[in-house]
Amino acid sequence: MKPLPALLKDTISTLIRALFKKPATVLYPKVSVEVPEGFRGQHTIDLKKCVGCGLCARDCPTGAIIMVREPGARGLGVPVINLSKCIFCYQCAESCPKGAIRPTKRFDMASDDPHHLVLDFRPMAYRPGRGRAPSGEQEQG
């Protein structure tokens, strides 16, 4: 009937080992974090590749993507992604026939305003005849 001394001995040995190990965490954000290859961070959409088919919105398991009609946009419109609903499964990227949706390595998306979690790509959409080219330069007429 000596479980307490055995428990105390195990506790002390664990404490001593932990004192000489390097920490399991980093001092983020003071120390930058290496993001591993294949990490699924914030979405990016290449609007030059997007044909507006809507497969990304159809296949999203949480309904985080909606297609919004934009004058001059192809197909059903431009995808708008609500990151507060997204589970980062990237089914949208798998479903995209043109490979327009890709993950980035950005993971620091915390916000106290839910509107900051909506990725609206409409301001970047190319709209022919409106004097706005994709690179921000004036359209050649």
Task: Please give a structural write-up.
This protein has a domain at 43-124: 2-Layer Sandwich (Alpha-Beta Plaits). It is 19% helix and 13% strand. Strands 2-3-5 form a three-stranded antiparallel sheet. It is an alpha+beta fold and 141 residues long.
Descriptors for this entry?
about 140 residues, Alpha-Beta Plaits, three-stranded antiparallel beta sheet, disordered C terminus
Topology:
Elements: H1 3-19, E1 43-45, H2 55-59, E2 65-68, E3 78-82, H3 91-95, E4 101-103, E5 118-120
Antiparallel strand pairs: 1-4, 2-3, 3-5
Order of helices and strands: HEHEEHEE
CATH class of the domain at 43-124: Alpha Beta
Strand order of the largest sheet: 2-3-5
Helix content: 10-25%
Q: Radius of gyration from the CA trace? A: 24 Å
According to DSSP, the number of beta strands is: 5
Q: Largest beta sheet, briefly? A: 3 strands, antiparallel
Form type: elongated
Looking at the overall shape, the CATH architecture of the domain at 43-124 is 2-Layer Sandwich
